[in-house]
Amino acid sequence: MRSVRVPSPETIAHELRFPEGPAFAPDGSLWCVEFHGGSLRCWRGGESTQSATGGEPNGAAVDRAGRVWFCDAGLCAIRRFDPRTDALETMANQIDGRPLRRPNDLAFDSAGNLVFTCPGDSRREPTGEVCCLSPDGEVSRVAGELYFPNGLAFTPDGGELVVAETYRQRLWRGEWDAARRLWRNPHVWATGLDGAPGPDGMAFADDGSLFVAVYGAGIIARVDHRGSTVERLATGGRCPTNCALDPSGVLGLVVTEAERGELLSMPDIRVGPALFHRTDEKA
After folding, report:
1. In the chain, is it the N or the C terminus that has fewer CB atoms within a 10 Å radius of its CB?
2. Beta bridge partners of 21
3. Mean of the pLDDT values across residues 231-247?
4. Contact 107, 22 (CB under 8 A)
């Protein structure tokens, strides 16, 4: 493993209350959530706005209509915010007749399915699961028996799904069947992502490499196609929670860091993002 590189990140925002889930919208605006602040934050054209959610927002993803979908761990729901109207909607809060287990992070596939992790209280027992919300509103279980499933990402071609199992310091990878909403042949792909507790949010680049926020270690690990860590980028604070690549290339790799409450930019990271937006435009 290579030594840690210090990229001198630039601070976009500070004094955030446990930021998570950076995500770029089609109009170029940058969003993140504040888990402890209960809010969504947006940076657009040099201005910042804040929207209260009344919950505990975690991961975030933006659809093609510019609406922000987020996990709400406090309300145990998948919710959606429309910045044009300030409307908040609950899109899912149950599976098999029971509440969702504190949803954590989420990602769209190429067919518009929204896949999300539900760790619940699975730090010591393998009760965490991965779920999927289809465009027609059906919630199904994709995987279970995991120790705190957390960040997740689709490969650039959409054919595979990677999920972080934080409390085992490893990443799972398997084939993704978008038509049937099935994760086939998942297997441990990358290990040794040690932190306190371990790998969190992640983002694929268009060259197939994966940037992984390692919570507790103060680094973003860059993992190659073999599952080997080939670079480690220092974040300053010990608790990076997630990352995203700027489609415009201006901000490079954007990182949310919880210990210092910062939103950071690493503009020298110029690899383009692999990103899916939900395809439906329904209100």
Report:
1. C
2. none
3. 96
4. no
Q: What is the CATH number of domain 4-266?
A: 2.120.10.30
Q: Residue 209: which of 147, 273, 252 has the closest Cα?
A: 273
Phi, psi of 91 (to 5 degrees): -95, -25
User: Tens digit of pLDDT for each residue in 91-137?
Assistant: 999 999 999 999 999 999 999 999 999 999 988 899 899 999 999 99
- Report how far residue 43's alpha carbon sits from residue 47's, in angstroms, rounded to the nearest whole number: 6
Confidence of residue 276 (pLDDT cuts 50, 70, 90): low
Looking at residue 3, its pLDDT comes to 66
Task: Read off the pLDDT of residues 62-79 as tens digits, 9 standing for 90 and up.
Answer: 999 999 999 999 999 999
**Given CA atoms 149, 151, 154, 160 in this order, what sign does their dihedral have?**
negative
Average pLDDT over residues 160-183: 97
Question: Taking residues 226-255, what's their average pLDDT?
Answer: 95
157 CB-near residues (< 8 Å, 6+ apart): none
Q: CB count, 10 Å around CB of 84?
A: 8
Residue 180 CB partners (closer than 8 Å, separation 6+):
none
Using CA atoms, how far residue 56 sits from 20, 52, 66, 172, 275, in Å, is 11, 10, 21, 26, 25
Which of 101, 105, 126 lies closest to 115, judged by CA? 105
HSE-CB at 238 with a 13 A cutoff on CA atoms is 7
- By C-alpha distance, which of 82, 159, 166, 160 is closest to 117? 166
Residue keyed to tokens 């001198």: 8
Nearby residues of 281 by Cβ (< 8 Å), 6 or more positions away = 64, 65
Tell me, yes or no, if the pTM score tops 0.90.
Answer: yes
Residue 130 CB neighbours (<10 A): 21
List, in sequence order, every beta strand (DSSP E) within 155-209: 160-165, 170-177, 182-190, 198-204
Contact between 31 and 23 under an 8 Å Cβ cutoff? The reply is: yes
